[in-house]
Amino acid sequence: MSEMKPFRVGLVGFGNIGTGFVRHVISYRDLLSRRIEGGLELAAIADRNLDRKSDVPPPPETKLTTNWKEVTDDPSIDAVVELIGVDRETGRPDAAREVAVAALSSGKHFVTANKGLIATHGAELHAVAEKSGALVLYEATVGAGIPIITALQGALAANRIVSIHGILNGTCNYILTRMAEESELTLHQAIDEAKRLGYAEPNPSSDIEGEDAAYKLAILSSIAFGQELRVSHVRTEGITRLTEKELSFARENGYSLNLLASAYIEPNDEACLHVSPVFLPDTHILASVSNVFNAVLVTGEPGGETMYYGQGAGQFSTASGLLADLIVASRQRRHPEYKPHCFKIPQGGARLIPAEQIIQPHYLRLDLSGRPDLEQKVIEMMPGKLVSSTSSSVSFLIDPISELELERLLEKAERLGVHPEAICHVRFAFTSGKESSE
Hints:
By secondary structure, the protein is of the alpha/beta class. The protein has 14 helices and 16 strands. The strands form two sheets. Strands 7, 8, 9, 10, 11, 12, 13, 14, 15 and 16 form a ten-stranded mixed beta sheet that branches. α4 (about 95-105) links the parallel β4 and β5. α4 (about 95-105) packs parallel to α5.
């Protein structure tokens, strides 16, 4: 058997995560040479701003360029790693998609940590890869180095996945953990603390509004349920409306308050996807996930529940996921017919559970807008239990009702001049969306 040449990799995007990737390519060169036949060679790096200071100098043999096409067009490069993210102004992954299509069309394997790209264009990229014989790999898009995508596409392939419940955003989890620990800490103070520690971006809106978790849930659900599920299919509520009132309710009633990403599928293959603040019983396994950690609980048939836990972001964890994908891609050189994963994100329409059939209990805090005289009318209107009342707001545990009924209830409150301040789901079990508070 002839000696294998080095597996040549081109990197597009040399920012924070790109720097971490290069650091680990250098630091773990010996380990990678044992995992990859012929070893791994960082052939080229493309970035718009190569003058940016970096504490990790690339290897001397690495070509540096400001033109990413010099990476995707180089016939000697085996795989392209994309780490440019989304456009800062539009929030869209248009440039990343262009890189991905160019790399895959030329027969290069494509590896990314770009959740926006895969959630938006994953089905398209799989189709391009199928035509060229290349692989599109994205373990690092969800949970960074937590091997949840590999598990869904491989070890759990014999299961019909019926539900996924996860804490998928470390920034929100850190913020809610700190607010639970210190009752005097406001949401804004907790966000500022997360920024100082590097756990939150200068503009953390994608995290705290639930968008980041929604992207990740769309990716996991598309693979698990075999449908092209998009971010627009995810009913999303962030943590921006939460206050000490919700944390106090959690402490007093044996709950943990988390931003939970949940998806389940019915026997008729209709799916439901939610990202929202959720009161979890303290005894539930996900309630113990704190600070910046992520966790994903998967229920399959016949395998039952399995859980995946770890640091869901950062240079180290993300580099782990990226390098694992490159090791997978390198094996196809010896065996071109090798297809490592059973499931891909398919092209085609999604089947969604109608809003009137999604039934679950809720926690609801309503702003009385300085009109305490409306309190009794609101109490009479709400189906459920009054849990707190002040001159400025009232909070309820709403009996299990459908999403459509909740929308109508809120519209009725708005007509009275009463506005929702916080909406949370209440999870007593994880069997389906049709839950009971008994």
